[in-house]
Amino acid sequence: MPETSHPRQKLVVLISGNGSNLQAILDACAGRALAAQVVAVISNKIDAYGLERARRAGIPAIYHPKPKDQDRRAYDAGLAQVVSAYRPDWVVLAGWMRVLSAEFLNHFPNRVINLHPALPGMFPGTHAIQRAFEAYQRGEIEFTGVMVHLVPDEGVDVGPVLLQATAPIHVHDTLETLEDRIHAIEHRLLVQALALVTQTAKTKS
């Protein structure tokens, strides 16, 4: 069926750092592994390298900082206005290091997707890989993982899971080797999850 019958799903990607997961999305879109296109990349950090990745791909790269004296919910409401201008089908949190409030999430019900480097119910919040590595060293866990999930509310790294994958931790691992393994899984799993939701949306349309 011609592609014009099903326009590519529009993604707005929120980042706070290097943007390697953003790059995985961009590559998948360019290679048509994803029936989607990134229409904007937004960061709350001016030095986030992901903004440069967006510029190199010819995609709007938007720096949207939070003023120190601005209320969190007011910031989120403003951010929702910026994102809404691009009319996204999905909002993807790919290393976005802020917990979004209802003032943002209510604008995109069941359309915000988050990537977290841990399995459901394990190590919510920041430094998840480091915390998993330390737990392994204490003999508390034998493996960790990655999940991609919907963000229905203000809960931290909880919500309906789209996909998850385990990641082994080896006896000779360092934090750096574990991080490399986790990141490789993140890149694959995020693209797979986006392929799943965009394909489902095409089927329903």
What would you report as the Rg, rounded to the nearest angstrom? 17 Å
The top level CATH class name: Alpha Beta
Q: Based on the structure given, which CATH architecture is correct? A: 3-Layer(aba) Sandwich
Poorly predicted spans: 1-5
Strand percentage: 15-25%
Protein model, in words:
With 205 residues, the chain is an alpha/beta fold. The chain contains 6 helices and 7 strands; from the N terminus they run E-H-E-H-E-H-E-H-E-H-E-E-H. The protein has helices at 20-30, 49-56, 72-84, 102-105, 128-137, 175-204; strands at residues 9-15, 36-43, 61-63, 90-93, 112-116, 143-150, 161-168. The protein has a 7-stranded mixed beta sheet with strand order 3-2-1-4-5-6-7. 36% of the residues are buried.
What's the topology here?
Elements: E1 9-15, H1 20-30, E2 36-43, H2 49-56, E3 61-63, H3 72-84, E4 90-93, H4 102-105, E5 112-116, H5 128-137, E6 143-150, E7 161-168, H6 175-204
Helix pairs in contact: 1-6
Main traits of this protein?
alpha/beta, Rossmann fold, 6 helices, 37% helix, disordered N terminus
Quick structural gist:
A seven-stranded mixed sheet has the order 3-2-1-4-5-6-7. The protein is α/β, with parallel strands linked by helices.
